[in-house]
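Figure 6 in text form: structure in, sequence out.
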């Protein structure tokens, strides 16, 4: 069992930055792949970024590559998403997920989810 709690969302102007955090508890964090996902109104949930358990593997969707950075601190059981150069189209509920098996950059591999945090980017 894994519990995930996101924080750091908010309202920001286009071009601004936010840093999301996801704190994990309930089981060993270091062997979990972690990902960030988002869902905008009327759209399917999409994977934004993911990181392997070791931190050596990273994935970014084409829409955020070069602007977002995923990282993790296993000692603190926390994964981060640094979001820079934000655009209005980044507006969504951002959720973190954890995977204990499967490919870290595949949405289907994720079996634990946080409640999400709202990110709103104004134009």
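Output sequence:
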């Amino acid at each position: 069992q894994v519990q995930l709690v996101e924080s750091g969302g908010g309202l920001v102007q286009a071009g601004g930055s936010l840093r999301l955090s996801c704190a994990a508890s309930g089981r060993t964090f270091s062997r979990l792949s972690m990902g960030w996902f988002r869902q905008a109104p009327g759209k399917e949930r999409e994977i934004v970024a993911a990181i392997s358990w070791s931190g050596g593997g990273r994935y970014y969707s084409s829409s955020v590559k070069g602007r977002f950075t995923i990282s993790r601190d296993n000692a603190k059981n926390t994964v981060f998403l640094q979001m820079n150069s934000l655009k209005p189209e980044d507006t969504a509920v951002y959720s973190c997920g954890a995977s204990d098996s499967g490919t870290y950059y595949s949405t289907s591999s994720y079996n634990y989810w946080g409640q999400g945090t709202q990110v709103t980017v104004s134009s």
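Caption detail: The chain has a mean pLDDT of 94.
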